[in-house]
Amino acid sequence: MCASVGIQGIAWAFGGMIFALVYCTAGISGGHINPAVTFGLFLARKLSLTRALYYIVMQCLGAICGAGVVKGFQPKQYQALGGGSNTVAPGYTKGSGLGAEIIGTFVLVYTVFSATDAKRNARDSHVPILAPLPIGFAVFLVHLATIPITGTGINPARSLGAAIIYNKDHSWDDHWVFWVGPFIGAALAALYHVIVIRAIPFKSRS
Predict the structure, then answer these.
(1) Which H or E run includes 128?
(2) Rounded mean pLDDT of the chain?
C-alpha cells in the first residue's frame, strides 16, 4: 500500500489549491496570495508600493495562521514531517536550492503576467476567465521539478509561516534561500515582461 500520495499528489494539491484560491480572490484583491508575485507586479508598475506592502504583510499573517491550523489539527504528523518547513535537501548545495527557487518563481510569475496581460484580455475574451488555470498548472509543474531540491518554496509567505510555527533550527538554516530566490525570480520575470515582451512593436496601420 502507498504510504503517501507522493510528489505527484503533493504537486496536484498545491496546483489545484492555487487555481481555486486565485479564481476565488481575483475579483477581490486580484488573486494576491504570494509575496513574490506581488513584488513582480509592483516592479512592473501594476501595484502601488503601499498596496504591495499591505498585501505582503497579510499574506505572511495568513501563512502563519494556516501553519498554526495544520499543527493544531495534525500535531503528530506535523512534527514527524518537520512542520512542512522548506530546506535545501541533502545532496544539494544552497546554490542549487537558490537556482531552483529563482527558476521556479520565474516560471510562476511570468505565467501570471502572461495570463493577466491587458492586450491578451482585449484580444481574447476567454483569457480573464481561464487565467487561474495556467497559474495553477504552472505551480503544479514547478512543484514536480523542485520538491526533491527544496520542497518547493516559490512563495516566501508559505515558507515563513511554516518556519515560524515549527521554529526549529533546521527550519531557519536555509530560510534566506526562500526569500532571495523567489524575489530574484519575480524581478527577472517582471524585467522580461516589461522590457522584452511589452517592448515588441506591433504593426501599425499606415
Answers:
(1) helix 127-130
(2) 89
Rounded-to-integer distance, Cα 153 and Cα 97, Å: 10
8 Å CB contact between 140 and 107: no
Residues 77-125 have pLDDT tens digits of 899 888 989 999 999 999 999 999 999 999 999 999 988 876 665 555 5
Which residue bears the cell 518556519? 163
The CA-based dihedral angle spanning residues 81, 83, 87, 91, taken in that order and rounded to the nearest 10 degrees: -10
Confirm if 135 and 112 have CB atoms less than 8 A apart. Answer: yes
The answer to whether 139 and 108 have CB atoms below 8 angstroms apart is: yes
Residue 51, classed as helix, strand or coil, is: helix
HSE of 21 in the Cβ direction (CA atoms, 13 Å)?
16
Across the chain, the runs of DSSP E, i.e. the strands, are: none
Specify whether the CB–CB gap between 32 and 39 falls below 8 A. no
The three cell numbers locating residue 191:
524585467
- Measure CA 176 to chain center: 15
- At residue 205, does pLDDT exceed 70? no
Q: What string of DSSP letters covers 38-102?
A: HHHHHHTTSS-HHHHHHHHHHHHHHHHHHHHHHHHH-HHHHHHTGGG---PPTTS-HHHHHHHHH
In whole angstroms, what is the distance from residue 144 CA to residue 155 CA?
Answer: 15
